[in-house]
Amino acid sequence: MTKAGFIFLNLLKGLSLKKIGHIMHSFGSSQCVLEAPRMDLQNVPSLTAKDIELILRSRDSDILEKELKLIEQQQISVIDIFDAAYPCLLKEISCPPPVLYIKGNRDLLSEILFAIVGSRIPTVYGISMAEEFSEKLASLGLVITSGLARGIDTAAHRAAIRKGRSVAVLGGGLLNVYPRENTHLAEEIAETGAVISEFGLSEPPLRENFPRRNRIISGLARGVLVVEAAARSGALITARYGCEQNREVFALPGNVSCPLSRGTHTLIKEGAKLVESVEDILEELNIHFQIQEKDKPYLDSQERLIFDIIDREGMYLEEIMIKSNLNHPLVSKTILELQCRGLIREIKPSCFVKVG
Fold it and tell me: How many CB atoms lie within 10 A of CB 207?
């Protein structure tokens, strides 16, 4: 593999991204990295004697051989910053990842990506909005990127792959999907989209990896939508990176009494664009798609009653029964019919929201 030297550098714990960048640009050739004598390494800006010893010692180990074998076995694509397939937007950020591991379609990274992020413990409203925005944008051809975390990230990925494609950026290696319950989701995303990471294949999902992961989520995207976020949240870190990277930052307003609205409202106060519809995003990004209005579905009186009761913040079965004054079998039957027609969705057990 021609980029083996750069993969090797990326595996070394103790070398910062800035130092790896200096080495890569000093040598230019991946093979030179693996063969350069001590004297040449000493000429690289910022490298200390300790760094040089780490490189020389690690070259005598089998870490690269093991990694290359895993890459081949798992059929993983790897690109470095000099590769023509490396996404142009990502090159623009401060300290771009020197190497990207990709499972899925690597060409997708050069299309129009849009990030949707938010709380790991969202409200029903947050999940509903993440799904709605993700599904609509994906259906128009935008590739939805997020971090595969619980909550808003998961909702955005699932909605995107229903109508289009998605890119998941991991905070660990591709062989250590986190959280574990999203392993199957990662496989589904890779079928039409891509799962990517800057970390070696076996890297565990360490806490310190996630802020680094967030800069890639925003760095790949034309814009970032924060759906729900507490005052201190990983989603806000992604938004901050987006600002630093000159990306458009969007925020969804929420209930002023809800703690998960504090982060998004703070972003809006600081200049993020308040979003009420997909059109708000498309207009700001100067993307011109014609969104077709759906014809209002025909509903009989009973279906209309229940459909009108259900809102976008979520309604539990018991609430629907009380508000409709209908019995359990009748409400359950009507809800099932509305679900089959794609008009409502069960977002949590026995909790339903309108679709679109």
Answer: 7
Longest dimension (CA), the chain: 83
Helix, strand, coil tally for the chain in percent (to 5): 50, 15, 40
Give the DSSP H/E element, type plus range, for residue 69: helix 63-73
Q: Which two tokens stand for residue 82?
A: 């000099």
40-96 pLDDT, tens digit per residue, is: 999 998 899 999 999 999 999 999 999 999 999 999 999 999 999 999 999 999 999
The CATH-assigned architecture of domain 301-354 is Orthogonal Bundle (1.10)
Q: Which long-range contacts (CB under 8 A, 24 or more apart) does 184-190 make?
A: 185/148, 185/154, 185/157, 185/158, 186/103, 186/148, 188/161, 189/104, 189/148, 189/157, 189/161, 190/103, 190/104
Predicted local distance difference test score (pLDDT) of residue 293: 54
pTM of the entire structure? 0.83
Query: What CATH number should be reported for the domain whose range is 106-284?
Result: 3.40.50.450
Distance CA 242, CA 250 (A): 10
SS3 144: strand
Question: Which CATH architecture best describes the domain 1-73?
Answer: Orthogonal Bundle (1.10)
Please give the Cα distance from 316 to 292 (Å, whole number). 30
